[in-house]
Amino acid sequence: MPAEVYYDKDADLGLLKGKTIAILGYGSQGHGHAQNLRDSGCDVIVAELEGTPNHEQAVKDGFKPLSAAEATRKAHIITILLPDEVQADVFRAEVRDNLAPGKVLVCAHGFNVHFNQFKIPDGVATILVAPKGPGHLVRSEFVKGGGVPCLIALGPGADDKSRKVALAYAKGIGGTRAGVLETTFAEEVETDLFGEQVVLCGGLTALIKAGYETLVEAGYQPEMAYFECMHEVKLIVDLLYQGGMNYMRYSVSNTAEYGDYTRGPRIVTDETKAEMRRILAEIRKGEFAREWILENKAGAASFLALRRLEREHPIEEVGRRLRRLMPWINAKEV
Ligand code: NDP
Ligand code: MG
Which residue among 35, 49, 87 is best mutated to probe the pocket of ligand 1, counting the most ligand atoms within 8 A of its Cβ? Predict the structure, then answer.
């Protein structure tokens, strides 16, 4: 059975009237939520670190940023939009003791709640309102009169009334203009981690690197390998995004389509799927979360070493040179 989708008519912004909403963190999501809610008629305050570019941005956008502690104290609804790996420390130091029964804690990703990094006081309702897109899109679609679809979920302390608040909040950021689906914290967190590890980030980059290396090791020019294994991914992804696999296969040549059906399954095999199941099990048991939390507590040394190593992969150097030949792609450097 397809999931129920909620729209504008299912949500009542009146539930947010007379309530102050604190947006903690004016980054990607924060700037979108804060401005959209304000434009929806809500009373919004912002917390940012003084002396940072995002603090300046918040001021430019007409907010008077406070500390996270002060904002939490003043607000009824507190949305925590800090980077996931700093949320637990800020929560303990500034948020927890300023929460009180009746207040609502909102997050846009359930990692810290699901993996018990917050000890949420009794009487506080925790909800998830997660736009399925980056913050700049949450803002730009809203300004155009549209919105980005959102997921909502009920966490610790939340009840039926909290679901109405979650829907009202989703309406305030434009989500119900596009459609809102209900999930659970566990489902949102586990599918999100799985997707980024197995397909979107981990799987895709491993596939690209292996393809590139295979061609270069066989004596082909690195430039050719870059075009075929990295550059053209975008053309295919755009087709998948617009019309799914059918549309992609309709658009490519019959030769490419036949190669897809007959060779693809030799690359992602039953063994690959067995490994996917192992990765999913690590996520569900909290093993990945424990590893990542400890890694950050230990100063993230191995994370930073991996980042350095990956940045030096030959495909990155070739790519940098080739992207300069294509000004229309708006090449980025980190
Ligand atoms: P960003 O890193 O873009 O923004 C976080 C902001 O918090 C930055 O402005 C940062 O300041 C600020 N900040 C850092 N530490 C503190 C502190 N101690 N006190 C006050 N402010 C602080 O994060 P995102 O918007 O990407 O992510 C926020 C949440 O939204 C996360 O839970 C994420 O999982 C979720 N989410 C993100 C999506 C996305 O596409 N980006 C999509 C859906 C959900 P500065 O950087 O200036 O130091
Ligand atoms: Mg995700």
Answer: 49
Question: Beta-carbon neighbour count of residue 219 at 10 Å?
Answer: 6
Ligand number nearest to the C-alpha of 67: 1
Quick check: CB of 188 below 6 Å from ligand 1? no
Active-site residues, by number, are 109
Per CATH, domain 193-329 is 3.40.50.2000: no
Sheet containing 20-24: give its strands across.
5-6, 180-182, 150-154, 125-131, 104-107, 77-80, 20-24, 43-47
Atom of ligand 1 nearest to the CA of 29: 25
- Distance, CA of 259 to CA of 116 (rounded, Å): 46
Domain chopping of the chain, boundaries: 5-182, 193-329
Asked whether 163 and 200 are in contact (CB, 8 A), the reply is: no
Residue by residue, pLDDT tens for the chain (334 residues) are 788 999 999 999 999 999 999 999 999 999 999 999 999 999 999 999 999 999 999 999 999 999 999 999 999 999 999 999 999 999 999 999 999 999 999 999 999 999 999 999 999 999 999 999 999 999 999 999 999 999 999 999 999 999 999 999 999 999 999 999 999 999 999 999 999 999 999 999 999 999 999 999 999 999 999 999 999 999 999 999 999 999 999 999 999 999 999 999 999 999 999 999 999 999 999 999 999 999 999 999 999 999 999 999 999 999 999 999 999 999 998 8
Q: How far is the CA of 165 from the centre of ligand 2 (A)?
A: 23
Give me the architecture of the 5-182 domain, per CATH: 3-Layer(aba) Sandwich (3.40)
Please list the residues that pair with 181 across neighbouring strands: 5, 151
Closest residue CA from atom 28 of ligand 1: 81
**Does residue 135 line the site of ligand 1, with CB under 6 A?**
yes
Q: What is the CA radius of gyration of the chain?
A: 22
